[in-house]
Amino acid sequence: MTVSFSLELPTQRVEAVEEFVTADAIADIALAAEASGFHAVHVTDHPAPDAKWLDHGGHHALDPFVALAFAAATTTRIKLLTNVYIAAYRNPFLGAKSIQSLAVLSGGRLILGTAAGYLKPEFKALGVNFDNRGALLDEALDVLAKVLTGEDLAYDGTSFAARGVRLRPIPPSPPPVWVGGNSKAAVRRAVSRAQGWAPFNTFGYAAASRTAEISTIDELQLAIDWAKQYAAEIGRTAPLDICFSAGNLLDDSKSPDERHATIARLEQAGVTWLTIAPAGTDRAELIDRSRAFADEFITG
């Protein structure tokens, strides 16, 4: 397989904090992922999740940069993926400082997956205009790209004005940016200004996540074909990573043969990365299942 794989750090598992949401848990799972052959570990971003959303299938999350910093401190090679970071939740310079800090301290291992976001009550709790989220993401990407050059950045934003911000130290190289989401707007943003696109398997969750339905490989293929068409229209020639959150397409209910066939189809469609979230009643079981997955589909 030439597809790369990222393993979820299950920091949303707050029903079993000692097993999954401690420094030791992050270290153990990240180390196991690195040793098993996974190419990255990832976390998500929900600083102010809404109680109603949590009670209907939502989930908690640690701060993504703090969680990934703990993973970085105990590993040496594995990439660190935000899947995904909602840039609009934060002032762009505060976001850039977190991104710079993790990129520097990890030796350049950060991959910045980011998206416009969809959880309206979370935007409201954070005092951010939900309807302006796309423009705020663009603004954050503008600031990040410019401030990581090392030059002094003057920038007039929607709610701030900087006369000459300077960041030091500069990361070894700017982290690649992958834009998440299934909508045409997300695809256009990814193709026009990022190094990757991160669609996800909605499996009936499209309405809640305010994005386009992608619940089959055929639907994903159509979306990738559209992305390639758009890239040709705007003259993009650089390769585009495609990181797919496959969800139930690769869960343990499928046989190894079925999952091999699914991965092969996804690779043929153009997918370059897959995110994996093995089940496990405790940390040991989750690590065992992660190793078994790696043995079967990554190193085997």
Automatic annotation (TrEMBL):
Protein name (database record): LLM class F420-dependent oxidoreductase
Domain of life: Bacteria
InterPro entries linked to this entry: Lucif-like_OxRdtase_Rv2161c, Luciferase-like_dom, Luciferase-like_sf, SsuD_RutA_monooxygenase
Luciferase-like domain boundaries: 21-211
Lineage of producing organism: Bacteria, Bacillati, Actinomycetota, Actinomycetes, Mycobacteriales
GO term, biological process aspect, one: alkanesulfonate catabolic process
Pfam families membership: Bac_luciferase (PF00296)
Residue ranges that the Swiss-Prot or TrEMBL entry lists as coiled coil: none
SUPFAM superfamilies: Bacterial luciferase-like
Alphabetical UniProt keywords: Flavoprotein, FMN, Monooxygenase, Oxidoreductase
Organism encoding this protein: Mycobacterium simiae
PANTHER family, sorted: ALKANESULFONATE MONOOXYGENASE, ALKANESULFONATE MONOOXYGENASE-RELATED
GO MF term set: alkanesulfonate monooxygenase activity
NCBIfam families on file: F420_Rv2161c (TIGR03619)
